[in-house]
Structures are given as C-alpha cells and as structure tokens.
Design goal:
Blueprint: E1 2-12, H1 16-27, E2 32-36, H2 42-47, H3 49-68, H4 84-108, E3 112-115, E4 118-122, E5 125-128, E6 131-140, E7 144-146, H5 160-163, E8 172-176, H6 180-191, E9 195-199, H7 211-223, E10 227-229, E11 234-240, E12 243-248, E13 253-256, E14 259-261, E15 265-267, E16 300-302, H8 313-328, E17 342-344, E18 350-354, H9 357-362, E19 367-374, H10 378-382, E20 388-395, E21 401-407, H11 411-423, H12 428-432
Parallel strand pairs: 1-2, 1-6, 2-3, 6-16, 8-9, 8-14, 9-10
Antiparallel strand pairs: 4-5, 5-6, 7-15, 11-12, 12-13, 17-18, 18-21, 19-20, 20-21
Bound molecules: NADPH dihydro-nicotinamide-adenine-dinucleotide phosphate.
Length: 453
C-alpha cells in the first residue's frame, strides 16, 4: 500500500452528481479527485436517461412513418424494416462521445480521475487498489442499481442495464413493474415491433402520479397494443430452450423471449465500508444525511440516488451545486425539493409538476380542477387514434396553480416552462392572462376556462 497526496475533496462516483460536484469544487480552487470503477457519466449517460431517450426516438419513428400517409407521403409499411443492431451501435457511439466529454470536462477543471473501486478507510482516507489517498472531505455519489425480486428462475431476468446492449430483439417481451422504467421500456419495445406485456402488482401502474394521468396513460398504451396486466406478479420463471415460461400469481403462464424487471433501484453502497465507520443507512438502504448532505461522520457527505431523494439527474446536479458552495464557497445555500418537474418518456409522454389532485386534497386544499382532452392537431390528417390530456390543479381560495399534468406529445418539453410558473407561485388568473401560442397543444394550458370539479 502506498500513500498519496492530500486532496481537499475525493468524490466517489463519476455520475451526474459526482462530476458536477468535482468540477464546481475544482473551479472554486479545491484539489479534487473523483474515483470511478465503471464509466464516466454514471447511470444517466450510460444506462439511463440518455440512451433511453435515444431508444424512445427510435421507437417513435414507427408512428411517424405510419402518420406520413395522411400527409401524402407514400411509405409502404409492409416494406419497412428496422435494424436493432444499427440503433444500438449508433447509440453506443454517442455514449462514447459523451464519455469523452465528461472526461475532458473533469480534466479541464483540474480534477484527477482515479480509475478503480473505492473504499473508505477512515474519515479522511480513501483506498483504491493498493493506493491510499488522504483528503479533507469525502463525498459518496455512487448512485443506485436495479433490484430484481427473488423468484425462482431470476437468473434469466434482465434489467435496464442489459436492455441497452441486447444483441437482438425478441418477438415477445415481458416487462415486470409499473414505474418509470417499466412504462418507458414497454413503449420502446412495442414501438420497435416487439409484442409486449407489462405486469404490475397493483390496481393501476405509475403509483404517485395523478390518477387521471395514470388512467389516461393506461388507455393510450393499450391503444398502442401493449398488453397491460394489473394485480398480477411473477411467481417463477422456467427456461425452455431459448424461451421462457413465466408463471404468474393468477395461475396463468406466459411464453416469452425476454423478461425484464423494472422493479426499483437500491442504493449502491457495496464495499464502501460505510457501516464500519458508523454511517447510518435507513430502512431502504439509503445513506442518511442531514439537510446539507452531511452523514454522521462530519467529513463524509453523500448526494444523488444513494441518499434516496428523487432519483433524477437534475436533482443530483442541484444537490452538487449546493454542496460545493457549502464546502468551498460562501457556505450558504440549501436544496428546495418543492415542485420538481418530471417527465416519463412512455408513449405518449407524461409531464408533471407540483401536486397531484390526490396530494392536494390530502393536504386539505379546496380545489378547482381544470381538464382538457383532445386529439393533437398532427393526428387529424394522419387519423391516428391518440389523444392528449392536460390538467391543472388550482387552490380555490388563493387561486394558485398547485399542479400541472399532461399526457401527450412533447409533454416533457411543455412541462419545463410550466414548472417556472408554478415555482414562481403563478395563479390561475395569471395563466388566463397569458396569451397562447397558436396552434399548439401547449396553449390549452392557458385557455382552460371552466373547472370540471
Ligand atoms: P420505481 O420505483 O419508479 O418503480 C418500481 C416499480 O416496481 C413499481 O411499480 C413497484 O410497484 C414495482 N415493484 C417494486 N418491487 C416489486 C416487487 N418485489 N414485485 C413486483 N413489483 C415490484 O422504479 P424504476 O425502477 O422504474 O425507476 C427508478 C427511479 O429512476 C424512478 O423512481 C425515477 O426516479 C428514476 N427514473 C426517472 C426517469 C425519468 O426521469 N424519465 C426514467 C427512469 C427512471 P409499487 O408501485 O406497487 O411499489
């Protein structure tokens, strides 16, 4: 074991939060190293947001080709073919480009990149391989990892990690789970021509989203031919040659070529030695930190997916900005977790910000609910049977817009702007006083006049 120079900060994990913290802190003059055992950019860049969105674009091309006919284009749909290896190879090339950018961003900021698996020896020492590094501060930004429930035959179950590198697409796939990743992958697979079944253990998937949004998404996904099965789960899986027999809790069986679990993610803390140092993990296995990301050991902090706050890249980035400022800036700043906008890139997309109707009622607000449902203009000529839903949750006493929710094309793009208004505390009267942009779907958000409830 050899000892190495002193750092001001060692960040463990070069994902979204870790890279941002390292760069910002180095730019403030700190001597910073980041330790990474896999890939630069973490889940988001390599096996999450970025490749997922590229696959979503790829899957949507099928609808665009079908829609072309109504606009006069002759696209012989019986002669259209799709080559999965091309999509994967092009996606891989783009991810490699982004990996390079992340490396250069760190190097240009003067951050040392240490390749290997880190463990924390004591409050100020990190060990990587046979090297020991001393440091004033340590930040754990190791992210999360997919969890596969313990059922007989689980060895054959894939997670999102492997789905990004599948050598070929099956004819039929089973997606297990009803959260973000399950509905996004069900949309991708179905769009790429795979007969897809989604299994969810509860009454209705997307728990935590507004109930209208959940029901509407169900309706639109069914229209796309996705077999949604609720109140059912997987009991066991048997391998039969290149196929699988999935035994369900309702006594039925499914024959399929692929089973993917999207049943949640756990904090990735293996081998770090946190509990040996007395750092507390909560019941769900996340690192316990205070409002300023400090663990029970004052020199060790943690941020991002590993602390169990909303598992979203922009949240980890914002946390990194706060922590860097506190450690190496003016010592001020704190996170504001209110009105975090988010999108689910199922097809059609979901965009949401602020309170759901259920959360607002639960919190005791007397509400006015505005809802608009329509066929997006693009689909009038193409004849596509796809609809769009928009909803505003308004406090009846203050007139404040508490939440905005949408299912439809470009929901993520539209919701980002609404998030600014909701964050600023906009009232329904201010939405009404805003001139619409015509003709767009987004203008519906400023033209809903009559409450439906
Ligand atoms: P989620 O926590 O969103 O969903 C997990 C799903 O699996 C839920 O439907 C849950 O059911 C179900 N489930 C959990 N355990 C079991 C079990 N033992 N048996 C059967 N079903 C089970 O996790 P994801 O993996 O989808 O995503 C993780 C996180 O990543 C998300 O919460 C999100 O923060 C982030 N993410 C964000 C994206 C975006 O911004 N677009 C995209 C992808 C991920 P139940 O509801 O009943 O608990």
């Amino acid at each position: 074991m050899s000892d190495s120079q002193d750092f001001d900060l060692i960040v463990i994990g070069a994902g979204s939060g870790g890279v941002r913290l390292a760069r910002m802190s180095a730019q403030r003059g700190a001597r910073v190293a980041v330790v990474e055992s896999r890939y630069l950019g973490g889940t988001c860049v390599n096996v999450g947001c970025v490749p997922k969105k590229l696959f979503v674009y790829g899957a949507h091309v099928h609808d665009d080709l079908e829609d072309a006919a109504g606009y006069g284009w002759r696209v012989p749909m019986d002669d259209v073919s799709f080559d999965w290896p091309t999509l994967v190879a092009n996606k891989n090339a783009e991810i490699e480009r982004l990996n390079g950018i992340y490396g250069r961003l760190l190097e240009n900021a003067g951050v040392e990149i240490i390749r290997g698996t880190a463990s924390i020896q004591d409050a100020n020492t990190v060990v990587v391989g046979d090297q020991r590094y001393s440091t004033k501060h340590i930040t754990v930004a190791t992210g999360s990892w997919p969890v596969v429930p313990d059922v007989p035959g689980k060895e054959c179950i894939l997670t999102s990690n492997e789905m990004f590198y599948l050598p070929q697409l099956p004819r039929h796939a089973v997606v297990w789970g009803g959260g973000y990743i399950a509905v996004e992958f069900a949309g991708i697979l179905a769009g790429l021509g795979v007969k897809t079944t989604l299994l969810y253990r509860g009454d209705l998937f997307l728990r935590g989203f507004d109930d209208d949004i959940r029901r509407f998404t169900e309706q639109e996904m069914r229209k796309k031919g996705i077999d949604l099965q609720f109140n059912v789960t997987i009991e066991s899986i048997e391998t039969e040659g290149a196929h699988y027999q999935v035994n369900l809790s309702n006594g039925e069986q499914l024959e399929t070529g692929l089973v993917m679990a999207a049943t949640g993610r756990r904090a990735l803390v293996d081998g770090l030695g946190l509990t040996d140092l007395g750092i507390e993990l909560n019941a769900s296995g996340h690192v316990v930190v205070d409002d300023y990301f400090q663990t029970s050991v004052p020199s060790i902090s943690a941020l991002g997916d590993v602390i169990g706050t909303p598992q979203l890249t922009p949240v980890a980035l914002a946390q990194a900005m706060v922590l860097s400022r506190r450690l190496f800036g003016d010592g001020q700043g704190e996170m504001d977790y209110s009105a975090i906008p988010t999108a689910v890139f199922c097809q059609p997309n979901i965009g949401t910000v602020g309170l759901t109707e259920e959360q607002a009622r639960e919190a005791g607000h007397k509400l006015r609910i505005y809802r608009s449902e329509f066929r997006p203009m693009k689909y009038t000529l193409s004849g596509r049977d796809e609809r769009c839903l928009m909803k505003l949750v308004v406090d009846d006493q203050t007139d404040k817009v508490l939440g905005a929710h949408m299912v439809g094309p470009d929901a993520g793009e539209i919701t980002q702007g609404l998030a600014v208004a909701i964050k600023a505390g906009a009232t329904k009267a201010q939405f009404d006083a805003t001139i619409g942009i015509h003709p767009t779907s987004a203008e519906e958000f400023v033209t809903m006049r009559e409450p439906v409830a």
